[in-house]
Amino acid sequence: MDSKLVFSSFGIVFLLLVVFVYAQTLNQPSITAPSSGSSFTQGTTFTLSAYVSCSGATNTVCNNVQLQVNLPSGLSTSSTTQSCGNVNRGSSCSKSWTINADAVGTYSITVTASSANSGTKTSDSISVTVSAAPTPAPSPAPTPPPLLTAISMEILLPAINQTFVRGEKIN
Question: In sequence order, which residues have a C-beta less than 8 Å from that of residue 138 and are 6 or more positions away?
Answer without folding.
Answer: none
